[in-house]
Amino acid sequence: MMKRMQKRTAKAAKNREDILYLSILIIIPLILYILKTRNGYLAGSEIDWLGQHIAFPDYFRKLFYNTGTLFPQFAAELGGGQNIYNFAYYGLFNPVYLLSYALPFVKMATYIQAVAFLEHIADGILCYYWLGRGHFRRRESFYASVVLVLAASITYHSTMQLMFINYMPFLLLALIGYDRYSETGKYGLLTVSVLFMILTSFYFAVGGLAALFLYGVCEYRHEKGTSLWSIIKWLWQRYYPALLGCLLSLFYLVPVYFAMSAGRSGHKGQSLKELLLPDIRLHKLLYSGYGMGLSVAALIILCTSIFYKKCREKFMAATLLVLFLFPLFDWLLNGTLYLRDKAFIPFLPLMCWLAASFLYRIGSRLLKIREAVGGCVLAGVLLIASLLTNSYAQQEKYFIYIDFAVCAATIAISMFYWKKAVCTGMLAVMALLCMGQVTLLKEELVTKAEMDRIDSPDIEKAVRSVQDDIFYRTETRGGYSVNKANQNKVWVCGQNLTTVYSSVSNPYYSNFRSEVLHLSKPSRNSLMADTVDNPIFLKIMGVRYIVGSQAPDGYEKIKRFGDANIYEDTEVAPAAYVTDQTISEEDFLNLSWPERQLALLSTAVADTKEKPESKKECVKKADVHMSASRIKGDASSGILSVDNNLEEDGYLFLEFEVKNNKVSKDVTVTVNGEQNKLSAKNASYYNANTTFHYTSLLSAGEKKIPVEFGEGDYEIDNIRAWIGTADREGTRNLYSNPAGLAVTGKGNVLEGTVDSETGGWLITSIPYDENFRLYIDGRREKIQRVNSAFIGVPLKEGKHEVRLIYHSKGRAAGIAGTLAALGILGADLIRRKRRLHGKI
After folding, report:
1. Which domains does the chain have, with CATH numbers?
2. Angle in degrees, CA 28, 34, 38, rounded to 5
3. SS3 698
4. Measuring CA to CA, which residue among 597, 802, 799 is closest to residue 693?
5. DSSP characters for 435-501?
6. How far apart are CA 776 and CA 764, in angstroms?
7. Confidence (pTM)
């Protein structure tokens, strides 16, 4: 009876301990959320969170409601019309986002904030459960879980780059599932967790799978046999359930692979020397939200673990240190794209494991002096080497020294006097870092007032009012910040945009914007296909409506909904038309960039041997004078003087080179309302925009153009300008035979009819992609690239039915792979069930 009472008392004490620890793991994210959102802020950043992490899931949900399919292939509304797997990275099949499809009454901004908050809580709870299920005592498991919850990468990206961390609950579940499989042979949790981790973030799943593999391999020392065959057999037995999870995701991974192969560019390759030479940078592990975001204590724990006698932690720590030191692994974990510290974030749970083991050894008086001294010395050597070979701010150096001294001192105190000193010191430093981060983060967060302005219901009403079945484009405008927020913002399916902000996009369309037309670049990020005011681009892309507070020249206000104005240009190009006014691509590319723009207003670029008629476009160089050529200091205004003798309205084409004398700062120059920006040299996606290009309408006799110079220290040189007029009759004739395309089917079909008396070429403004299939009167025709970047085909005279269908490359093969994996899974379940009943 007494023993039973003692067991009950002990169990009650453990339950109280669990409740206390779990409560703290819930309270910490809650406090951080309150600190971020107080004083009228949302838990999300102004750029990526607003422009991508809300916009894409919201678009996927709207597309589901519009098409009724969970497996779309084409995004007609984004970037002129693109493969939807270009945007898979942003949560196309994220299982948590899919749940929002059942909640149409919940705004996506609210849903994403709630999900990020709950995932932050789940990270701590799942880490505590994983570490505590037979591995470590509750106290050590709790302290190590707090390390995860307070890690800068977790706290920072819960409001910034959600994809950097939103897979973490599934990674922790996979680690729990691996333990469960090792103990019981049941692998359902492991397989499903790996599948969901990949569907949530295929990019970081590479690191997640590597962490899972390393976690399991570290226990191989307990197994018998050292032959190659025995090792292979052991690995297969341990990891085939995880492999099944990977195979089940092939319906997603295969089309993603082909999309990335076609649309990812802009990163310089790494040399072999760069990959193999050690790189001792602290930010992979310490402080930065774009690395693991831990304190110096983590480095000391990592180094100390290497000095243990043979054990799981020793091998784990040594392997992690090798991964950190050699850029080759950084490159591989980043999918061979580039070197980025973010690839190491999935190894955070393993650092928590090492922390729990370290704290257990200290608490149990098992940590030997030589191990502690060896770890501190090795950590000190690495710190000094990093400080000597890399540049750090003086304040950061001081903080590193203090952090190291505090950690070393608390370890000594814990070993000889107070066991909890190291826990207290380590978590105090991380809490201090976390508070500082939240304070600085405020500058990047969206305010509720700004969100209400951007997400105004008046804008949605205005956009809906101009939608019909015919394909054309509608853009929403505001100031610079609103335009950035709206790059991927689709208010209603059918509101087709020319803009897109994605790490993967159609390469032909990107090249058309940057190299053929030389559109302005208002943003510092090279991946942004921005909103531009170029009147020629807007015309040839068929942007008929502009909704917002303002519109470029050439649009007339036709309606108003509250604060949202609707502007229209009825003379823009239809989404598809037939013309015999053509020019060969060779002749077209031989033109100057101003001549190319004007040529597209009266001719179509196609695979033709016909020589164009003598050009009616008139482009001539113009004398211009900028009121300032050297800017140093605050923002200022100026004037561009133009020698304009045009007797009718025309176009001004302007370009000049920019030399940035303060490369750590951006350079911005706005001419006639059109902005160009050169990003700072250290920008993650440096835009290399050293030559600014502008195209704007120029009224007859207009000679003074307003210029706004952004702050900084830069020089403007080699200013060149042209003025010209278009062949208005040629433009009217070019668009005289429109094909009224409409999006049908599951969102991947565009169809319509066209009637042409002369025949010629069917020209569209849908970006070229070899995965389109074009049918004319039910007969398949080979698509060709026209206007340098779009889909077209020769067409005979008469009335024709046009049908354009998009099939994502690799989708069928991926589905077949997933079905095969389901078959293997089913067969294995039957085999295991029969074995359980003794039938095999």
Report:
1. 269-455 (no CATH), 619-725 (2.60.120.20), 741-806 (no CATH)
2. 160
3. strand
4. 597
5. HHHHHHHGGGEEEHHHHHHHT-HHHHHHHHHT--SS--EEEEE-SHHHHHHTSS--SSTT-B-S-EE
6. 14
7. 0.92
Cβ 627 vs Cβ 707: under 8 Å? yes
Angle subtended at Cα 404 by Cα 402 and Cα 409, rounded to the nearest 5 degrees: 95
Give which of 559, 567, 549, 528 is closest to 479, Cα–Cα: 549
Mapped onto helix, strand or coil, the DSSP state of residue 364 is coil
Separation of alpha carbons 136 and 142, rounded Å: 10
Q: What is the Cα–Cα distance from 428 to 127, expressed in whole angstroms?
A: 20
Polymer length of the chain? 840
**Residue 88 predicted with pLDDT over 90:** yes
| pLDDT more than 90, % of the chain | 59
Confidence of residue 9 (pLDDT cuts 50, 70, 90): low
| Sign of CA pseudo-dihedral 43, 45, 50, 56 | negative
Tokens of 790: 């779009």
User: Which of the 8 DSSP states describes residue 837?
Assistant: T
How much is the pLDDT for 264? Answer: 67
Task: Give 582's strand partners.
Answer: 604
Ramachandran area for residue 90 (φ above 0: left; ψ -120 to 50: alpha; else beta): alpha
DSSP assignment letter at 569: -
- Taking the C-alpha atoms of residue 484 and residue 46, their distance in angstroms, rounded to an integer, is 9
Q: How does the average pLDDT of the chain come out, rounded?
A: 89
What's the whole-number mean pLDDT along residues 781-789?
94
| Nearest in space to 654 (alpha carbons), one of 727, 740, 724 | 724
Residue partners of 37: CB distance under 8 A and separation at least 6: 43
The set of residues, in sequence order, having a beta carbon less than 8 Å from that of 84 and lying 6+ positions away, is: 63, 72, 73, 74, 75, 92, 808
Residue labelled with tokens 């103990």:
183
**By CB neighbour count within 10 A (0-12 exposed, 13-18 middle, 19+ buried), where does 232 fall?**
exposed
Asked whether the predicted pLDDT for residue 10 surpasses 70, the reply is no
Sheet of 543-548: strand order equals 473-477, 543-548, 564-568, 556-561
* pLDDT range class, residue 420, cuts 50, 70, 90: confident
**Terminus-to-terminus CA distance in the chain, angstroms?**
46
Residue type at 289 in one-letter notation: G
Token pair listed for 615: 């050009």
Q: What is the DSSP string of 281-345?
A: -GGGTBS-TTS--B-HHHHHHHHHHHTSSSSHHHHHHHHHHHHHH-HHHHHHHTTTS---GGGGG
| pLDDT digits 0-9 by tens, 292-322 | 999 899 999 999 999 998 788 899 999 999 9
Beta-bridge partner residues of 667: 678
* Three-class secondary structure of residue 285 per DSSP: coil
Does residue 479 carry a pLDDT above 70?
A: yes
DSSP code for 513: I
